[in-house]
Amino acid sequence: MNMLNAKVTFFAPVYRTEDPEKVGAAVSNMANFGRPKSEEIRPDFISGTIPALDKIDCDGENIKQTACINGNLELLSGIHYLIRKEEIIDTANTAFKNGTDESGCQTLVALNKQAALMKHLSFPADVEPLGSVYLEIEAETPDALLKIIDWLTPPTKEGIPVYELKMNEL
Fold first, then answer.
1. Cβ neighbours of residue 108 under 8 Å, at least 6 residues apart?
2. What interhelical angle do 142-152 and 77-85 show, nearest 10?
3. Radius of gyration of the chain from Cα atoms?
4. Higher per-residue confidence, 35 vs 45
5. Where are the chain's structural domains?
6. What's the family (predicted)?
7. Which of 45, 77, 83, 160 is the most exposed place for a label (fewest CB within 10 A)?
8. Is the model's pTM score more than 0.85?
9. Which range, of 29-33, 38-42, 56-60, averages the lowest pLDDT?
């Protein structure tokens, strides 16, 4: 079975008061979790803002650059693992569904930047003063996005997944 095509982006604004290396490490930790060091993808640092920042509540005036890693569904394997390790399947499902845009083809979720720096996954309840690491998933159709969300965060019963899709089943 062919895997769905999707664009996956992890990004975080780097504010003037922040160390770009630490912000880059937070982005890298989320995108590369579980990958061998030799296969890790380093973030690109883009001067100023990127179009995706228009979708979030941030102080564009104080952003000096944006740390960004782009890829496909394979970038989500670490998040898939962390959602289970942290036992936050239902919380993550709510975040992905609440972050879905009107087209139904795209979702944008905030991840706690401090937790990401420590290789933990946490979805902040509110806007964070120092910003977040963001995960954006863009699929070709609403059904494709729902299938990706279902793979990341399957239905649960008492916190245990009712079923688990494999990545190659997407």
1. 52, 55, 56, 99, 101, 134, 135, 136
2. 50
3. 15
4. 45
5. 6-169
6. Belongs to the UPF0201 family.
7. 160
8. yes
9. 56-60
